[in-house]
Amino acid sequence: MAILTANGIKKSFGDTQVLRGIDLEVEKGEVISILGPSGGGKTTFLRCLNFLEQADSGTLTFLDETVELAKANKKQIRAIRMHTGFVFQNYNLFLNKTALENVTEGLITARKMKKEEAVKKAEAALLKVGLSDKADAYPNQLSGGQQQRVAIARALATDPAILYFDEPTSALDPELTKEVLAVMRDLAKEGMTMVVVTHEVGFARQISTKAVFMENGVVVEAGAAPEFFDAPKTERTKEFLRSMSSKDV
Amino acid sequence: MSERVIDILLESFPKILIPGLLRTIPLTVLAFAFGLVIAVIVAMIQYANIKVLKEVCRFYVWVIRGTPLLVQLFVIFYGLPGVGILIDPFPAAVLVFAVNEGAYASETIRAAMEAVPHGQMEAGLCVGMSWWQIMRRIVLPQAFRTAFPTLGNEMISMLKDTSLAANITVTEMFMTTQRINAKYYLPLALYLEVGFIYLMFSTILTRLQHYGEKKLAAYGKR
Predict the structure, then answer these.
(1) ipTM reported for the complex surpasses 0.90
(2) Cβ distance of B120 and A88 shorter than 8 Å
(3) A 97-156 residues with CB < 8 A to B
(4) CA dist., res. B168 & res. B74, Å (int)
(5) Are residues B76 and B96 in contact, defined by beta-carbon separation less than 8 angstroms?
(6) Can you name the CATH fold of A1-83+160-171+179-249?
């Protein structure tokens, strides 16, 4: 059963059409990676799904509620955000809050959870990303990899039905990338539903159940994971995967 | 210095200090507090980009920053009675200084808000927080920290500017000194004396500012 269905998402910035009608279906427990060259619209697409950008047209069916993206009201947007988690390229931790507070913040303010309960949840989430010992550290006392893991814990703690990752390792060096990918791999194993925009083709191949290749605002090719990587149907996908894996770690 | 001068200085010291404590300081603190409230509201309106209100705020900042404080004091205190609005000297001074501070501090706070990385707003929205919650708990605390040193300077600057309130008959320190001088005619000694008291006050404020800055040390920075 699909928990998320996106249909015909279009988005322009000024005269530039960034998304020319994107469809995506995500089933529970699936890990979908979205690959493609920079500027192809991957990030914009992901941001449209969480209303960080307002799409010009298209519909989104999420947990059996269908909204027209261009006409979604505050209440609908908030309802969707309450059940999704978003991990950013630049972590975007709250700089005036400790690691633990970063995780509890949304639970206490947006979900009206009791503080003790929120702390318990946050501690569990930090444990999961291997950062229990950093609970009291502020973001600028943490490495990029640690910050990103806190950001993942923050998203996890809200029990999202789906987790979005927007190039979660692009700002990290290979060493730190590994620790973040390890956390994501665990999540995938546990059956977390994830949509991952990434440039890590090797990693995408390992964890994905489905992959999408996007370029110039259209889906060039989409398919089940091993086949997509091992025997892509289009020349363009083949070429892209080849160029990307040559610099894979 | 003759004994007479010393006697007069000693005698006038409490006479100047007391209006300082009863007028200058309350005027500064009240006007600064109200000014800060105005400033935060004006800064938030501009940050949130609310259409018509934003233009109103811009106009306000433009007018207040573009006209002398003394003129503003005269308009409110001597001008408004002409249209039937009478305000007592002290409240009139608080009003003018607050409105003035609001305009300057709003720019300080707006800049500090814009310096808070915008991604935190998006992250807050993504965990389901409302714009207000993010503003109150994430953006404003960080902006306040950034703005603090500048706001401290503005407060010290305002402390000294309150001497202008003498012009609208607020019997603060400077006016009191003028009155004492009218009696004894010792301008050099007496105006140096009031200057010294202003210096004392602003030194205390400077110390408080440093203390506050330390307390607010950047999150997690040693």
Answers:
(1) yes
(2) no
(3) 97-98, 105-106, 109-111, 137-141, 151, 154-155
(4) 7
(5) yes
(6) Rossmann fold (3.40.50)
